[in-house]
Design a protein that fits this description.
By secondary structure, the protein is α+β, with helices and mostly antiparallel strands. The protein folds into two domains: 141 residues, Jelly Rolls, CATH 2.60.120; 266 residues, Rhopdopsin 7-helix transmembrane proteins. Helices cover 54% and strands 16% of the residues. Strands 1, 3, 6, 8 and 9 form a five-stranded antiparallel beta sheet that branches. Strands 2-7-4-5 form a four-stranded antiparallel beta sheet. Helix 3 runs antiparallel to helix 4, helix 3 packs parallel to helix 10 and helix 5 packs parallel to helix 8. The chain is elongated and about 95 Å long. The structure holds 2-acetamido-2-deoxy-beta-D-glucopyranose (NAG) (2 copies).
């Protein structure tokens, strides 16, 4: 089954961390040895502000070696070496490695104080993760962590978007303009061909509008984060439209796949069941997405939510393929039995194309984009976003073009020669099948 292709990206996703911005995290009685906070791509003038308060250790024994508890910055490459050093027993704690950049160890905590503030200037451009290490396996840590990582622009303003993502607001804005253009074009087509418009065409209009609004909010959301370090509510709008876009797009793929409204005016029971599975799963996927984005990788359940999201996404992608396969099967049978070979063959070709394109779209946006994200340097992370958006755009354009309302329905203007040729081809296909 095509879904098997989707699994390589499960592994890659687990390593991609979320956007860095001003972040507030609560750690409660946590005994993890390593807690990753945000990941951020520093340009040449990067800065980290870290304010930690309400620090409580479960075992405040004065003899503990608190130099083994603290924060540090580390690149992905050097992290692999640090892990190697620990495996080779050269060091016993990541904080002892010379490959990391110390931020603060709890040894430096002033007597009796439960809070500290540090400010780190990072001039080596690279992608860093802020990590908390607790190498004392006897204590649990509670604390409130406020962190902000940003780059300074030439004019001294702060840019809270990571080095490879700083042009994303512009990218999203440009794509939203493209979809606004497509919306206009589609309304024009609907008006011109209004006598042959089906209900599904209005549904397609809704899908494009949702996509345009989603991109517009994402552009505004990211540009707000870029300037201020937090989203100030724009993220709520963004999540709402993401949710509506996700539901409408998957529903559209199912509806087109079943041939609803242009092949037949009703849905069969099993097709309704697919929708009844896909829509609630999309709700779960969107909730998972919000949790993943908002908590960041420090959360205890971050990995769990990430897995839930992946599983749900894979199930949705597989589920939407079934109606198309059923339609193809029905059309093949109809082509053999009802004597209108040419009509059915045309529909059959269209549905087969659609099946291939849906698979390509799913594969590209789920696997290729994540592969790109993994292999590109942190400075060019925006390229994987652009690649994903281009694939999505191509998919929308293909769907709109192939299933547009037709003034002269080609299914009914077929002469005898074409009918014979089609019957001939069907016969050939049957022989291949056997
Ligand atoms: C720690 O907290 C105290 C009282 O809340 C405050 O006065 C002090 O400035 C804080 N110190 C640091 C280093 O943040
Ligand atoms: C950290 O504390 C300083 C001084 O109180 C404050 O100016 C800064 O905004 C704080 N940063 C974060 C990320 O909370």
């Amino acid at each position: 089954m095509a879904c098997l292709f989707l699994f390589p990206f499960v592994a890659s996703l687990l390593f991609s961390l979320s956007f860095a911005e001003i972040r507030y995290s609560e750690i409660r009685s946590d005994d993890r040895t390593i807690i990753p906070f945000d990941e951020f791509g520093f340009a040449h003038k990067g800065q980290l502000e870290l304010n930690v308060s309400d620090i409580q250790l479960s075992n405040p024994n004065p003899d503990l070696d608190l130099s083994k508890v603290g924060f540090f910055l580390c690149t992905q490459d050097s992290w692999l070496h640090v892990v190697q050093q620990i495996e080779d027993s050269e060091i016993s704690c990541a904080l002892q490695s010379d490959l990391i950049k110390h931020v603060f160890t709890f040894k430096n905590l002033e007597n009796g104080k439960s809070n500290f503030s540090v400010f780190v200037v990072e001039n080596d451009a690279d992608q860093y993760t802020l990590v908390f290490a607790n190498c004392l396996n006897t204590i649990k840590v509670s604390m409130d962590v406020n962190s902000a990582m940003y780059n300074l622009e030439r004019n001294g303003n702060r840019d809270y978007l990571s080095a490879g993502k700083t042009i994303l607001p512009r990218v999203f804005f440009l794509f939203s303009l493209v979809y606004i253009g497509l919306t206009g074009l589609w309304i024009h087509v609907l008006y011109k061909k209004r006598l042959t418009v089906f209900r599904i065409h209005f549904f397609m209009l809704a899908v494009v509008v949702m996509k345009a609004l989603n991109l517009l909010c994402e552009a505004e959301d990211k540009s707000y984060i870029k300037r201020t370090g937090s989203a100030h509510g724009w993220d709520v709008l963004f999540y709402i439209f993401s949710f509506l876009k996700g539901i409408t797009l998957f529903t559209l793929i199912v509806l087109i796949g079943t041939g609803w409204s242009f092949l037949k005016p009703y849905l069969q029971d099993k097709e309704k069941k697919v929708l009844m599975i896909v829509i609630p799963l999309q709700v779960v996927a969107n909730i998972a997405q919000v949790v993943i984005d908002e908590t960041g990788p420090y959360g205890q359940y971050w990995i769990t939510w990430k897995k839930v999201f992946l599983l749900v996404d894979v199930v949705c992608c597989c589920a939407v393929l079934f109606p198309i396969v059923w339609s193809i099967k029905n059309l093949r049978e109809a082509a053999r039995t009802d004597g209108k070979a040419a009509v059915n063959l045309m529909k059959l070709t269209l549905f087969r194309q659609y099946y291939i394109v849906v698979i390509c779209y799913i594969y590209f946006t789920r696997v290729v984009v994540y592969a790109l994200e993994t292999i590109t340097s942190y400075k060019y992370l925006w390229t994987s976003v652009v690649a994903g958006e281009l694939a999505t755009l191509a998919f929308y354009v293909f769907t709109g073009y192939k299933f547009k309302p037709e003034a002269h329905n080609p299914y009914f203007v077929i002469d005898d020669d074409e009918e014979e040729a089609a019957a001939e081809q069907l016969k050939l296909e049957d022989e291949f099948e056997l």
